[in-house]
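so my prof wants the structure for this chain in the tokens format not the other one, which i didnt know existed until like an hour ago. anyway here's the sequence
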Amino acid sequence: MPCRNRREATAISPRFRRIVRRCLGIATVASIAAFLSIPTVVVFAVSVNPGEILSFPPDGFSWRWYVHAITYPQFRRAITNSLWVTTISTLLALPIGAAAALALERRRPPGHQFFAGLFLSPLIIPGVVLGLGLLILAAAGGWVRSAWNLVLAHVIVALPFVIRSVWVSLKNLDPMLERAAASLGATPLRTFFTVTLPLLKPGLLAGVLFCVVISFNEFVVSLFISNRLTEILPVAMFNYIRNYTDPTIAAASTMLILATVVVVLAADRVIGMSKILQIQEER
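here's what i got, hopefully its the right format
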């Protein structure tokens, strides 16, 4: 009888361990999801509060602060600045980042590891340090009030992401396709435009996505080098909350979060981000 009980316990224990592991996995995923989503839920709840101050839980439901956020003149001007800076910085960062990735992967110039680290260094340099450095540089050049300071800063911040996305596409590119085009008589320039560039399309589109999301939401660096006329939306939101305590800032934050989520989901559906964020095995 004791032997039978031991056999039953041995037979049940693996099933019990699987159940425990599954429960722990579900609990872990649920905890992480709650940790990431609860702040957003709280911001949305505050944004529909009809009261005059930021408070949670809300006392009722009202869209009045969304209307105020949309019609507030400083926010409207900041959105225009954000769209302008994001567009120009994307148009500049994309070709520069693509050219850098091609040079680092295909040409491998002397000291290419140093240049790779240099191009990717904005990922690890604190935004405060980068913003202060650009502010000092702008002051020395006499163009502190220029909006091109913001464009330069956003290009620097977004460039590593463009290089990374294009670099991954190059890693996934089969070099035999380019060799086949060359063997058929195509010049290097024609091979690039007819073979290489179309195959790099996922990486280029991902680079555009990263530029748009990062530039539109950039705050720390922009805070140092913008003024009231050139400030972008995150900086305008920061200045607003320093002076007012109504839920307008929560409404603006909710709309900014939703816009970012919509852009990322749409881009993921069109591009397939898994193709960019995962390097295939080397051939």
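also thought this was worth mentioning. Residues 279-283 have pLDDT under 50 and may be disordered.
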